[in-house]
Specification:
The chain is mainly alpha-helical. The protein is built from 8 helices and 3 strands; from the N terminus they run H-H-H-H-H-E-H-H-E-E-H.
């Protein structure tokens, strides 16, 4: 509201100034303008409109320049982050890759052996340890941090599914080192029958696919950022 009032006041002032300039610089027109005052106001309005158009063009150019400057500065910060990653990012990136190698450990188990029907506690303990130890961790690189959080959330989804669906089943326990064997309830024990059983397993396999996808995205983001 104040901006509009200011523009209106400035406009009236400009009109009055134009009229005063015309009367002062063109004394021969003074009597003519006095006899035809509508013409003077028309000329002043034309000058006012022209001034507003020029001001709008300059304001738009200034806005464009400022936006380009902000984009340029943001790009510079991104390049600096890539060229000079923090020591914490380097260390944590290496830790995650070591905790989640492709050819062994929990990731290999999920990709090659997990069937969403039965698993041992020792096989999935690394998943729960990771979630507990990395809950508050973050990366200084925004891109890497987003990729890491996506990966972490996908792991959390699977752990929640396991906690909800899995139950210890001593019938399959073979050694103390293996720990408890967990199984999910079959269709005969579910309200939705075997369709509910299949749906539960499909959800778990979907979470596994998300883990594999986001693990890959995390590593690619880290490589792009010089880690």
């Amino acid at each position: 509201m104040r901006n509009r009032s200011g523009i209106a006041i400035a406009g009236v002032g400009l009109v009055a100034s134009v009229l005063g300039i015309l009367n002062w610089t063109l004394p021969g027109l003074r009597h003519w303008l006095n006899s035809v005052p509508e013409l003077g106001w028309t000329l002043a309005a034309v000058f006012l409109a022209l001034a507003i158009v020029i001001w709008l063009i300059k304001a738009e150019r200034l806005r464009t320049i400022l936006e380009q400057r902000d984009q340029f500065e943001h790009k510079i910060e991104e390049l600096k982050a890539i060229a000079y990653p923090t020591e914490r990012d380097r260390r944590q990136f290496k830790e995650v890759l070591e905790l989640w190698p492709w050819n062994s450990g929990i990731l290999s188990f999920l990709e090659m052996q997990f069937n969403a029907k039965m698993w041992s506690g020792s096989e999935v303990d690394p998943l729960y340890h990771f979630l507990a130890e990395w809950r508050e961790r973050f990366f200084d690189s925004s891109e890497v941090n987003v990729a890491f959080k996506n990966f972490y959330r996908s792991c959390d989804k699977l752990s929640r599914w396991m906690s909800h669906e899995g139950a210890p089943d001593n019938r399959y326990r073979t050694t103390l080192d293996e720990g408890f064997i967990y199984t999910i309830a079959d269709g005969s024990k579910r309200e939705g029958g075997w369709n509910a059983y299949d749906a539960a397993r499909e959800n778990a396999m979907k979470y596994v696919d998300e883990i594999l996808y986001h693990r890959r995205q995390f590593e690619e983001a880290g490589r792009r950022n010089g880690l």
